[in-house]
Amino acid sequence: GQQVMQIPQYQHVQEGEDFTTYCNSSTTLSNIQWYKQRPGGHPVFLIQLVKSGEVKKQKRLTFQFGEAKKNSSLHITATQTTDVGTYFCAGLTGTASKLTFGTGTRLQVTL
Amino acid sequence: KAGVTQTPRYLIKTRGQQVTLSCSPISGHRSVSWYQQTPGQGLQFLFEYFSETQRNKGNFPGRFSGRQFSNSRSEMNVSTLELGDSALYLCASAGTGYSPLHFGNGTRLTVT
User: Fold this and answer.
1) Does the distance separating the beta carbons of A48 and B45 come in below 8 Å?
2) pLDDT of A30-83, one tens digit each?
3) What average pLDDT is seen over chain A?
4) Chains A and B: how many Cβ contacts under 8 Å?
5) CA neighbours within 13 Å on the CB side: how many for A79?
6) Minimal Cβ distance to B56: which of A35, A43, A97
7) What is the C-alpha to C-alpha distance for residues A51 and A54, in angstroms, rounded to an integer?
8) Residues 6+ away with beta carbon under 8 Å from A107
9) Do B53 and B67 meet the contact criterion of CB atoms below 8 Å apart?
């Protein structure tokens, strides 16, 4: 079955440092979504990427969808303590109409 | 617009019992998905319902079942509970199966 892996599993950075999480799918995706889950909370939708090679920005967050539509990345510039949480990618395969979540990357930011 | 509502928020059950969890989606959303979240396994897909029909199913045993009503509300049932079923169960709704998911706060189930 489809698998979606994320690396790293965990990253601890100091406030102001950059952070990147990578998402890799075993199959080609029709789109990819990113979610953020704060500690004790539920996943919250951040963005959706559909086109091959697409890049989208949300303030300090930059999202990329690979050319082959099998990988994606989320980059945070100058992290803040409010960025703490677990970031999940979720890939959709066109025929299955099923969203498969990645393993998640937990980000810890300290002052 | 009200968000996704899950009840109850917390449940404590004993091994062998069964449990029913409820989810009310955002008004107008016809797709409801269920996920199990545990520290070691991340977010595992259980099933998705769309217009009262199960459209997709994850790799969970038959003890896990669900249904969706005509008003899009959904229930999930777990029979013969096992200790390993202890988890946060998240429900998410979407306008269609391809739309971004809107999650509820979840039901935390503890099996003793």
Assistant:
1) no
2) 999 999 999 999 999 999 999 999 999 999 999 999 999 999 999 999 999 999
3) 94
4) 47
5) 22
6) A97
7) 5
8) A10, A11, A12, A13, A19, A21, A76, A79, A83, A84, A85, A86, A87
9) no
